């Protein structure tokens, strides 16, 4: 079973990555930043976790207010640096761990944390700014990353108590993961700062010191603090320390801080901690009982012939093709697909197998491959095929035979105003 080796807390201000990218290691004003991270690097090099579960928040880069959520688990197989306006940082991509992420997702949902998931999104300074100082990466990163994005920028935001409980659920999931791997937990954000409004520039070092002390020794004494109380003491953006509570919740009750650093050169205190486990707290449930519980909702679905639940695993494996078909909602991509499908396949980097499935409108094959049905009906709308044609093809029947199984022989699709895409209506059905 997987083992949690300890936790890291760290600020994630872009000051950290700027210092690294600009090569400020020997500048006396910047050097304390690097010095403060050296013991964390040493701890990671000694403990050698296989996976870093990394709690951070995005800053309206890849997660915008057009669709904002509280808890978003990274399930992808690779993550890259986001472009925050001046081009992405020159930092290599890092591997994810889709299998462990899917297991954690199942555990969290079973524990009533209805998280969302993401892949193929750039990670901004909330992730990569401190990560670059935590780990060597010139020749590739030494471990896998599971990023966990927390929506702390729009109110209502998750509470301290909710975050702590979420951490406990993450701990359960990791401890019951049936692979013999080591996992470290990182919580990022803070410490005290405010970057907006007339109060910008607010800091409070005594509160930062108190918070770090209580995080180790009395985390549960902090759980009733409101966002307003956190903002009063640590600045509004400093309230992102709720993410440190997720990390703390994922550790055992008894821990010891073996490293602590604090430096306040400008707007935000740059702080970090290494918190090591000091008890071997085992989960309350037996492994088999936990695994049965998190798989309970879909247990038995495998007996249903012709039924393929769209799991995280399928979504990761078939992401490229699902993404290609989803892009048909964009008029420019749709036009390219209709005018020059081979060029559109090449641009999207589809494999030969994926190209063939689309070229041949192999509706059943697409489902078997891992494409979700709702991409099929989009493709149908683009090429002028009704939903009924697709249903019949998936069943291996003619349209007429399938229509006989319905109460009325109607036809429809999701096509809107594009010309000619519902030509099958009021005509003899095509074969
Ligand atoms: Fe932040």
From TrEMBL:
The keyword Oxidoreductase applies. GO terms for molecular function: gallate dioxygenase activity. Residues 8-270 form the Extradiol ring-cleavage dioxygenase class III enzyme subunit B domain. Keywords: Dioxygenase, Oxidoreductase. SUPFAM superfamilies: LigA subunit of an aromatic-ring-opening dioxygenase LigAB, LigB-like. Its EC number is 1.13.11.57. InterPro entries: Gallate_dioxygenase_C (IPR034940), Gallate_Doxase_N (IPR034939), LigA_sf (IPR036622), Xdiol_dOase_LigA (IPR011986), Xdiol_dOase_suB (IPR004183). It holds the Pfam family LigA. Residues 321-407 form the Extradiol ring-cleavage dioxygenase LigAB LigA subunit domain. The keyword Oxidoreductase applies. Gene3D superfamilies: Dioxygenase LigAB, LigA subunit, LigB-like. It is an enzyme of class 1 (oxidoreductase). This is Gallate dioxygenase. It comes from Hyphococcus aureus. The lineage of its organism: Bacteria, Pseudomonadati, Pseudomonadota, Alphaproteobacteria, Parvularculales.
